[in-house]
Specification:
Blueprint: H1 4-12, E1 23-28, E2 34-40, H2 46-50, H3 55-70, E3 74-79, H4 89-106
Parallel strand pairs: 2-3
Antiparallel strand pairs: 1-2
């Protein structure tokens, strides 16, 4: 079995501002042919790990999946997010400002539109 911990550390540590925060956890199924790998990093480093458009993490996934295939395994790599439904305070501040701005723009005067009257057709 490949040393996934060493492989991922080798690939990701040069990208991190806080390399000491890197945590790699992996588990496999009972047959040992599937491996799930979770990577946790400092929240400030998440952007560096993902890269522009997710290209960096996709390249790391490709390398890990290739190493797993050589060993006869199937691998899945995930970035662990301890707070998946919350954003950074800075992002939330910008988002709330944007929402307030959009709400101000959206308010428009109401226009009363009468429905057309129904005509009876005489045959």
């Amino acid at each position: 079995m490949p040393d996934y911990n060493a492989l991922i550390s080798f690939l990701l540590k040069p990208l991190l501002a806080h390399p000491e925060a890197l945590r790699v956890d992996f588990e496999s199924n009972s047959n040992g042919d599937r491996v799930w790998i979770r990577v946790a990093v400092d929240p400030e480093d998440r952007g560096q790990i993902c890269g522009k458009g997710g290209r960096t993490i996709q390249a790391v996934r490709t390398v890990v999946m290739t190493a797993a295939e050589e060993a006869g395994h199937s691998a899945r790599l995930e970035i662990f997010d301890p707070n998946p439904n919350t954003n950074s305070e800075e992002h939330q501040d910008r988002y709330s400002e944007r929402q307030e701005f959009q709400q101000e723009e959206v308010q428009r005067p109401l226009i009363n539109i009468e429905k057309p009257k129904r005509r009876e057709i005489i045959t």
